[in-house]
Design goal:
CATH class of the largest domain: Alpha Beta
Number of strands: 11
Largest sheet: 6 strands, parallel
Number of domains: 2
CATH architecture of the largest domain: 3-Layer(aba) Sandwich
Helix content: 25-40%
Number of helices: 8
Bound molecules: adenosine-5-diphosphoribose
Distance between the termini: 25 Å
Radius of gyration: 18 Å
CATH superfamily of the largest domain: TPP-binding domain
Length: 238
């Protein structure tokens, strides 16, 4: 879990990652195409209304996503972030539901929007299970006998881990924003918690909106931009 108290001798580096972090691992981003996510409108598969209307479609959709994650590999961007742990107290705060940061070896990862490899009870949201990459089917139930759902934050649902994420960003010396369009709140608002003197970098071929002074934009894909930035940070900031 995350210790808020930073190991005194290390600078704290916080990575805020989004779908672009996993794009080069073959996992589609959300807003590249015309608002479709793997041929589905997100409203049709990632909302409580969708779950109430057609739970089987929602389960099938996430079963497909999960298979994709199992078939994907961490990319050079994920691996470069692990290198940073040699010299920095690194916290990854991701909007991604895949487990590529963990599989690359990152030690402190916080999933604001949940995890595709976890299921949870529909009777008690605190009952969370590791699904070991298995599909969730109708009729799969929790220990209370209620239907299991993906442990993912759908549009319109609360983002409880913001309470843990905000204080981590508030103590950052360096923030690296990678592969997120910063259009979905509250996650998109996290950058504003960074201290005024924190150094902020963006690695993204697009142009996410960050209204903070002196943000350094590296308009590169993750697999190119992150390794270069990591090499520079390890050489200069430690
Ligand atoms: N390397 C780095 N960045 C990339 C790459 C790449 N190879 N390819 C695309 N990007 C950038 C895009 O320029 C864009 O800024 O990644 C970002 C992807 O933005 P979105 O598709 O909006 O993904 P994200 O910001 O993670 O979406 C946030 O919205 O749908 C919900 O809950 C879902 O967590 C998701 C949230």
């Amino acid at each position: 879990m995350h210790q808020h108290t930073r190991p005194s001798n290390k600078l704290r580096l916080v990575v805020l990652s989004g779908a672009g972090m996993s794009a080069e691992s073959g996992l589609q981003t959300f807003r590249a195409s015309d608002g479709l996510w793997e041929e589905h409108r997100v409203e049709d598969v990632a909302t409580p209304e969708a779950w109430a209307r057609d739970p089987e479609l929602v389960l099938r959709f996430y079963n497909e996503r999960r298979q994709g994650v199992l078939a994907a590999e961490p990319n050079a961007g994920h691996l470069a972030l692990v290198e940073l742990e040699k010299k920095f107290d690194v916290h990854i705060i991701t909007q991604n539901i895949d487990n590529l940061h963990e599989r690359a070896g990152s030690q402190q990862v916080l999933h604001l929007h949940g995890k595709i490899m976890e299921s949870r009870s529909t009777a008690d949201e605190l009952l969370v299970y590791d699904n070991h990459g298995e599909d969730i089917q109708m009729g799969d139930t929790c220990e209370l006998g209620s239907q299991l759902r993906p442990n993912i934050v759908w549009f319109g649902e609360a983002v409880p881990l913001m309470e843990q994420a905000a204080p981590i960003v508030a103590e950052a010396d360096v923030v690296m924003v990678v592969g997120t369009s910063l259009v979905v709140y509250p996650a998109a608002g996290l950058v504003q918690y960074a201290p005024a003197n924190a150094k902020i970098f963006v690695v993204d071929p697009g142009s996410p909106k960050i209204n903070r002074p002196d943000v350094e934009v590296i308009a590169e894909k993750a697999t190119l931009g992150i390794p270069r930035l990591v090499e520079r940070l390890l050489r200069t900031l430690t």
